[in-house]
């Protein structure tokens, strides 16, 4: 073979190789990369937007919940009041799903979830780790499910911004003023791989999740003798808030630090005015333990009940002023939901009362 022919073949081979590299490394991947969407400011504090309408004991039973009310002699079967647009029969809070779509749907069937009469709130970390993050996202979007922004949503959004060359996630306060945050430098391979698959509708949904959600009145189990309840009063309820990880006891709701709300697990003693995401830190004490001790001594007008996730290590953790709902589904534990409703009843004197009730439901995870 002549040198000219060899040179021509080498040249053609080099051109073909470059063409294949471009085809597989640049052109074809672009065909499968979803269109990007700009990341907007993440709202720190939001309103639930729904309120509970009282339901009868008969209706409570129909929904598969415990209708028994201790120390109240007579039940009432009054007709359910006509609902206003923002009134619902139940609030349902679901702990960390972590992409476990099958278990999530099983839990919704167990609680007889009805999007027409229930307000469902997922407590953050609904994606990553598990096998079906996109399925979970699509279901939440299709059924207009409310959400709390968790640390894993934050990590994925950071990776999404890096992959598409966008501005990183930032947090907004209630007046839409940008808040400064620490640079977390979060990049883990599974979250980066998920971020590359996200479509604009997924980013739009995650982006509208809030850090903290004001819930209105929620059950407060104060009285052992329910006969002490006042007619039409709210003596068995306190203001409730939902957040992924926790809240600082020494800061107002509006002054909470977003990253702490996403990541905290413990307070650091002896003053307990500093948080950490590492429960093995010296002098670290569970944030919920300190929160409950501080709420116990607070005036009732200042006390709050917090619903949260994030702490799979401690599992389902129900205290007087805090309700931890991450029961370790991704680690083979359970997926938990807290169902809250307002029940009509008559007290022992035959006078009508409304009672805030709550009940935990769980399904096992693989």
Descriptive report:
With 366 residues, the protein is of the alpha/beta class. It has 2 domains: 32 residues; 255 residues, 4-Layer Sandwich (Purple Acid Phosphatase, chain A, domain 2). It has 9 helices and 19 strands. The strands form 5 sheets. A 6-stranded mixed β-sheet has the order 2-10-11-15-17-16, covered by helices on one side. Helix 4 links the parallel strand 6 and strand 7. Helix 5 crosses helix 6. The longest helix is centred in the N-terminal third of the chain and has 30 residues. The radius of gyration is 25 Å and the shape is elongated. This is Metallo-dependent phosphatase. InterPro entries: Ap4A_hydrolase, Calcineurin-like_PHP, Metallo-depent_PP-like. Keywords: Membrane, Transmembrane, Transmembrane helix.
